[in-house]
Amino acid sequence: MPAAEYIPKEKKEKKEKKHKKDKSESKHKDKKEKKEKKEKKRKLEETVDGADKETKKVKSSEASESDIVANGYTAHHSLASLPQSDIDAYYKKNAIEVVGDQSYRPIMEFSQSGLPSNFLKVVKNFKNPTPIQASTWPISLSGRDLIGIAETGSGKTLAFTLPALVHIQAKRRDAGNKKGPTVLVVAPTRELAMQSQEQAEAAGKECGVKTVCIYGGVPKDAQKKAIRSGVDIIVATPGRLIDLMEEGACDISSVSYLVLDEADRMLDIGFEEAIRKIISNTREDRQTLMFSATWPESVRKLAHDFLSKPMRVTIGSPDLAASHNITQIVEVLDDPRAKERKLTELLSKYHKSRKNRVLVFVLYKKEATRIENYLQRQGYRVVAIHGDKTQQQRTEALNQFKDGSFPLMIATDVAARGLDIPDVEYVVNVTFPLTIEDYVHRIGRTGRGGKKGTAHTIFTVQDKSHSGELINVLKQANMPVPDELLKFGGTVKKKEHSAYGAFYKDMGDAPKATKIVFGDDD
């Protein structure tokens, strides 16, 4: 057995003195931390003072904090004192349904958000948040996963953009946050991606947030360069994003705030596999927001697989429905060849000044070119947007339509979804689309942001397979149904999921959400 180590008396006393000092400092530190925790709890209790009983059910300090404070964000105290009767009235008036395990108070005024003034500059021209913004902001700002279901033109882009800025700001304070994009927004079309990027850029301008838009149809070099220079937000279409990821030019492993915009549309056009691959390359602890115009089984399955205990907010009906701000007129033509003549008649009425914005939809690219040339010969300032146009031509046409230099635009369904074109007074459907979903999104280009609009649709015997669905959409919006349309019948064919057919199982909201870790084959 080794001999005990000899420690000189002076060294021993010095060691004991240091131990007492360390113990005293540790005790003082614990006392200070307890005091700070107590003070933090007191402040939180003050914040929830006056809140309704439902909110006060969250008793632990940790749960209370997660309900009110996340990412360094604190709601304005006026939100906590909002009477429950006002909340109930607001939800009823705007047909809002919130499903989930917690109660949140809608932000009905921008001042209630508690967001910095530089964040709110982007909404300075709006009076109040839209229903989808008011009901989802408290949820997304608290760090929760979210499913938002609302019609087109409801303000979904800003619903996810402002919370994204708060999230970025919080991650910047985190010294351990690795470099790379923090926010990823995935959208089905180039035009929708560009629109989201514009809003993100405008909102982030005041706080130094850098955004890049990634889409196909243009060279990759500029997009790669923008990513290398450092970005906070990437807005992308699935195909081009996958390409850049596979080339090693775009690393999304640091993404902790993911948005799937127009999720139903992305699944409709076959992007499910790409979306799953994209999600699997983001952080496992990410916050995920999914926005959709409808709530079909395919979207429910995706939400079930990838969202963690999401709150679901529905504005209006979760089924396909047109905005009540749009006056729908359906005119049945006996002769399909008379469409162009009918269009000329409608434009003489709806575009009499030749200055107001009118959007004309057709089904085929060649049809768009033919009608564009036809109207040009009649002296109209008209542009067209369709798949045969280059991305530069499409972007230029959109800008000319937006600034009013060419107030008449012909478009295929490439422009039907998500485009936020201001003050489109009239939409004319010369040729009915392939699906009733595309019809609803086409007419949704007018009547946006609470404004009124008119959609005039030409219907022929060639479109009779859609008569039942169209009759339902008209009835849901309390619009008159022409007798000529009723003659085609009101039968609606049961929809089948593109991958699972008629045997698709509705996952609903009951099962607990899980996250999937993919192997090398995915």
From TrEMBL:
Composition bias type Basic residues, residue spans: 29-41
Keywords, in A-Z order: ATP-binding, Helicase, Hydrolase, Nucleotide-binding, Nucleus, Ribosome biogenesis, rRNA processing
Region annotated Disordered, chain positions: 1-65
Source domain of life: Eukaryota
InterPro entries linked: DEAD/DEAH_box_helicase_dom (IPR011545), DEAD/DEAH_RhlB (IPR044742), Helicase_ATP-bd (IPR014001), Helicase_C-like (IPR001650), P-loop_NTPase (IPR027417), RNA-helicase_DEAD-box_CS (IPR000629), RNA_helicase_DEAD_Q_motif (IPR014014)
UniProt GO MF annotations: ATP binding; hydrolase activity; nucleic acid binding; RNA helicase activity
The DEAD-box RNA helicase Q domain, residue ranges: 108-134
Enzyme class: hydrolase
All copies of domain Helicase C-terminal, residue ranges: 342-489
Segments of skewed composition (Basic and acidic residues): 42-62
UniProt domain Helicase ATP-binding: residue ranges: 137-313
GO cellular component terms, semicolon-separated: nucleus
Motif Q motif, chain ranges: 108-134
Entry EC no(s): 3.6.4.13
Subcellular location field: Nucleus, Nucleolus
Function of the molecule: ATP-dependent RNA helicase required for 60S ribosomal subunit synthesis. Involved in efficient pre-rRNA processing, predominantly at site A3, which is necessary for the normal formation of 25S and 5.8S rRNAs.
Cross-referenced PANTHER family: ATP-DEPENDENT RNA HELICASE DBP3
Family of the protein in this entry: Belongs to the DEAD box helicase family. DDX5/DBP2 subfamily.
Protein's recorded name: RNA helicase
